[in-house]
Design goal:
Blueprint (H helix, E strand, L loop, with lengths): L2 H13 L3 H14 L4 H14 L2 H8 L7 H10 L3 H7 L12 H17 L4 E4 L2 E4 L5 H32 L1
Antiparallel strand pairs: 1-2
Length: about 170
């Protein structure tokens, strides 16, 4: 079903007072379009309507009109900065698309996550992840390939020496 059709059903559900189906439809849409700021704002508005300040703060975190008490409730419910960053469920860094208030709020969260550790924030195709420095585990496939290559070369040299001795 197209996004606009689902949004029309959400509006119809809300007009009839059917909040739960509207929330489910918006949850499906935000899962399908995680970087759509308008969908996030709509989802925050529904949570605001039912009085769930934590979720309103979560989904309104990237919008300009999120109330301070909603953001505070979200931060209090999830004190870890990395946890909050992951709970935003964004795939791409939204910093360029945010307004000044939400942009500053998001930059503060990223800075807190980097200070909290375990590593700086790196944006991957599935969203923010800790960017760990390279370790010996990263080099393991190369080490295994080098060891196998040395064994093959050693066996080839041994076979060649054996063939030469046999021929003489």
């Amino acid at each position: 079903m197209a996004k606009q059709q689902v949004l029309a059903k959400v509006e119809a559900d809300l007009r009839r007072g059917h909040v739960h189906p509207a929330m489910q439809r918006l949850a499906s849409l935000t899962a399908a379009y995680p970087d759509d700021l308008d969908l996030r704002a709509r989802r925050a508005a529904v949570y605001r309507q039912v009085g769930n300040l934590v979720e309103a703060g979560r989904w309104g975190f990237l919008s300009e009109d999120a109330a301070a008490e909603e953001i505070s409730a979200f931060e209090k419910a999830h004190p870890g900065a990395w946890r909050r960053l992951l709970l935003l469920k964004v795939n791409a860094d939204p910093a360029d698309e945010l307004g000044p208030v939400a942009g500053a709020r998001f930059a503060r969260l990223v800075e807190q996550a980097e200070q909290e550790g375990p590593a700086p924030v790196a944006w991957t195709e599935v969203g923010p992840r800790p960017q760990f420095p390279g370790s010996w585990r990263d080099e393991m496939p190369c080490l295994v390939a080098a060891a196998v290559g040395l064994i093959v070369v050693g066996l080839a040299v041994f076979g060649l020496v054996s063939l030469i001795r046999w021929a003489l």
